[in-house]
Design a protein that fits this description.
11 helices, 33% helix, Oxidized Rhodanese, domain 1
Length: 305
């Protein structure tokens, strides 16, 4: 091998190494979108924006073209408790009424660190609809990047939106499945705050305070710059957070929170950004689990009879 070929080989190796570094430090291009990119495509006819905030906040100003949705819009009301994932038919009806067609890419944002947006992403993943992206940092980052805000509510032409008739339930796990998985080989992560996890605080909707036995607590808010720009933390920071749990990326992991919303954010982080392979989000989470006295639970502050 002559000296020219040697130099060429070194350059190629260096380039590959740098490409590898780049690949693990950028956010997922399929399901995340940055404010700068959104600005360049916002006027495309097949881009549909959804604002997942309180109506009064939406009315006070939103991204041009965005329509407002709330958590209740994506909940199944056929349960005696709240927070359950909307049915396929309910989601089809909602998206059709919002004027979204199957050709469209849905871009969703919130003001809560992509917590609400991630729940919407998770539901669509379960129903095999992948043309959805979340605005990294939500409306906070949009404003920080001089994105325009309006109070104009766009007109809607209803569509006949359809989801796959055979849900994939890609990241979904039910109460009964969680109960069967209560064994050492399954990692159960509670993404609520420490007061909820310990049982010191009971959030509205839960029947009793506490947690699922053998849960590990790691607050979902650790995933983002919660007290800053609401953006996801870097891959390096996220890796550091979850490496402390001493779990493998091939381990069976079940996530939950109060109603499967905060844990949907962690589902996104683990599966899309950090490469964990077997992650499921418990739909009913603690709200559902706490309703059933026959299900085991732990509590640090109240005696368990």
């Amino acid at each position: 091998m002559n000296w020219k070929n040697s130099i060429l080989l070194l350059v190629i190796c260096w380039s590959c190494q740098n490409n590898n570094v780049k690949a693990i430090t950028e956010t997922d291009v399929d399901y995340l979108i940055e404010a700068t990119e959104l600005k360049s495509i916002i006027n495309n006819s097949n881009i549909k924006l959804l604002d997942f905030r309180k109506k009064e906040d939406y009315d006070n100003g939103h991204i041009a073209g965005a329509l407002n949705i709330s958590r209740s819009d994506i909940e199944d009301k056929n349960y005696p408790y709240g927070g359950m994932m909307a049915s396929r038919i309910q989601m089809e009806d909602l998206l059709g009424k919002l004027g979204i067609s199957n050709r469209d890419t849905i871009i969703i944002y919130d003001d809560n660190g992509m917590c609400e947006a991630a729940r919407f992403w998770w539901i669509l993943q379960n129903y095999n609809y992948n043309k959805v992206r979340m605005l990294n940092g939500g409306i906070v980052d949009w404003i920080n990047n001089n994105g325009k805000i309006t109070t104009t509510i766009p007109e809607i032409t209803k569509t006949n939106f359809r989801l796959n008739s055979k849900p994939k339930l890609k990241y979904y796990v039910s109460k009964n499945q969680v109960f069967k998985a209560l064994k050492p080989k399954t990692v159960i992560i509670d993404t609520r705050n420490s007061d909820e996890f310990s049982g010191k605080y009971k959030k509205k909707g839960a029947e009793k305070p506490g947690r699922i036995p053998n849960s590990i607590n790691i607050d979902w808010a650790n995933n983002i710059n919660y007290h800053g720009n609401k953006r996801l933390k870097s891959i390096k920071e996220l890796e550091s957070i979850y490496n402390k749990l001493n779990i493998k990326k091939t381990d069976s992991i079940i996530l939950y929170c109060h109603s499967g919303v905060r844990s949907a954010n962690t589902t996104f982080v683990l599966t899309q950004l950090l490469g964990y392979k077997n992650v499921m989000n418990y739909d009913g989470s603690w709200t559902e689990w706490s309703q059933y006295d026959e299900l085991p639970f732990e509590n640090d502050f109240h005696p368990i009879n």
